[in-house]
Amino acid sequence: MSPYRIVFGKACYLPIEIEHCAYYAVKRYNLVFDQAGKERKLQLQEIEELHLEAYENSKVYKEKVKRFHDNMILRKEFKVGQKVLLFNSHLKLITGNNSECWLIDSSCTNHMTYDKSLFKDLKLTNVLKVRIWNGGHIFAKGRGTIAISTSLGTKVISNVLHVLDIDQNLLSVGLLIEKGFKVSFKHQHYLIYDIASREFLKVKLRDKSFLFDPTQKE
């Protein structure tokens, strides 16, 4: 019988069982407290032994599993001058030129870009502190206006922060809605309309993200 069933299967009942065993020991030995105390110590010792045995069994099990998996790994020994195949494990999740791409982000509170060349005009301001999703902060060097060329024409976006500590341009859905824009979903597209209800941006779902790349056609 596995010790796991004994120790871990009844862990929540352990205090009640000890209390019950202690009462039974006192009753059995006719209220001889010294003898009952010794009996209870023996019972506690048995329980402790079960814990230790379970720990030892789990330790042995982990060692056996590790030994099994280690034996499945082929030893790699290379010599100087030997030709080998190198596997590059870097995964590129977002395709296209990141400097031109904009991620439509519903959790971002500001439009942000790291590329200074995208700005039509940029005003350097005092360092602005921007809070990010993990509670930390990044710093913006300035604020300005950018122009994005789309199939629907050139779109101007104002109030964009210049942040060097990011590697992806971010378009804030919340800020667009605050400015009077409207958003909707249709046939795996993210549709953004301006104040006059004209289509502002149409972004297709790619790799579970709404990434707008003006260099690519639908």
UniProtKB/TrEMBL annotation:
Instruction: List residues of the Retrovirus-related Pol polyprotein from transposon TNT 1-94-like beta-barrel domain.
Output: 102-181
This protein's source sits in the domain of life called Eukaryota
Indicate what this protein is called per its UniProt record. Retrovirus-related Pol polyprotein from transposon TNT 1-94-like beta-barrel domain-containing protein
Species in which this protein is naturally found: Mucuna pruriens (Velvet bean)
